[in-house]
Amino acid sequence: QQTQQTEQPKQPEKKQEDKAIESPMMISINSLDYKNFKLHQKQQSELVFMGFSRYLILENVENHSVSIIVPNTKIYSPNSQDEISESKKQNNIFDSDIGHLIFSFHERFRRLNSATIEGRLHLIGLILSTSTSIPNPDYGMHTSIEEAIRLLRYCKKSSPFSDLEIEKLKNLHDFSNLHPSIYLLLDSLKKSSEIVSFLWHEKKADAVITTTSTSIANKIHETSFAHHNYFQKLSKNELNHRLLLTRAEETIVFGYDKTANIHCNRASQKYGSVELELSFDPSSFEENDRYVKNLESYLKTLLCSYAKSRKESGKVFPLRSSLLHTQLGEEMHEELRKSWDKYYENINQISEVDFNELKKFVVESKTKLEKKIKDLEAVILGATKNVQSEDNQKDCFSIRKSANIICEMTLLDIIEIVNKPSLEGDLLLLSFYPYFSKEACDRFKKTSISLMKFYVLDDKLQRLLDFSRHNKISQIHKELKVVREWDCNEHPYWLALEVEGRLQIRPEQYKVTKHLIENPKEIVQLNMGLGKTRVIIPMLILYYWAKSRKSPLLSSNNQQ
Question: Which end of the chain is more exposed for a tag (fewer CB within 10 A), N or C?
Fold first, then answer.
């Protein structure tokens, strides 16, 4: 680590009580391993797990995002007694000799996450080692088991697990007795790895199969017990939708025959008869859309552009066609000249921004937008809290919610409902509130799309503030030019990508994606830094995923 100390200028003599609370110097400890990160002034946080203290909290100096560093060691169960001696041995190792993992924190969803599968598996171990059966506000009102299951689904690979990942899977097996779904998901990950192992080197594949089979599911009685326990909880209706395995996972673990029997009783779901209040009126959707479009359009007007002449820039195409004597050469020359002209047509655009006006407008707009977001969140989440009925449904709903059979909806659940295909999203929404009518489900999702548009706009305003604070003029120009050119109702999964990634799809990225969708056999060459990996490829994956997705059976009111 690198330490910077800045002496404060001398101030007039102050009272004794002022001296007691004022530090004589500011200390900034910057990270050498993680660029633009420094040690956070506050090293105790509610974001970290109960009873866990070996961590460091880092802060990004540019956008003030928070990340957490933890030692990369084996995680022990709190009740484990036979591993105390090994734990004591590890305590004698200096922290600087131990590897570490970093977790990023999503401020809006209050979630820790890792960019690597090894990191996610370690994060799951930390969650399970500090697990409780009560919905935890730090996990967005998920229980520890539910949060672990959610993260396990992000650990699937299209290749065999590495040696480090296998060690993490072995470690997680020590906690698999907490819930049968944990054990079965680990089994599903192992089998998924075995399925693709033939695509890799034979020795490596054999090693992976042997190791994972030994560490996860080599004991037949453990597997049988997990199967029996899962079916028992399922028959007693003790599993909420977050603890249930998906159809694909159950097919991998149990096989096709058992999976068909599992889903025969829960494949269809009836709509209810509850409608939504005036807050979900279609006119409010249009008003919210106009607000977002008008604000983005006004931001674009703050960027004043004018073109520099070719003579002024002095960039004339340097190749002469008189040296070419073949048709192929002339065609290549013409293609290069057009590319040259197009490049300098863009590069010669001079843009100016009134930063004082921009900052003032952004601050005012962000304050108003945050209030709109808060009000809309309260409307959406409040719609699933109470039953609008006078019969015993209200008491039944309250009891099932208290027992966590019906889960408390979170902001992340709203994103998932919108992200899924139409009928599948309805099915997930009805698992939170089984009394909605078909029209109520549609209105709920449209209102959720408005909220997600607000999220993307709020992140954009925050980026503009961060860029202006550090005088990043080119980034400000790029951000001001971005206006959404695609329909969120037609592609809600792209909107979910923007919200979760805290980004906004640029017009040129959408044009490339649209071109590849309309011309699937063509190849497009893109320069570095245009978002191929982070934006364009995920957009294509989500599009084809949604196109091929099959929706579950969902019956209307008059169907049996």
Answer: C
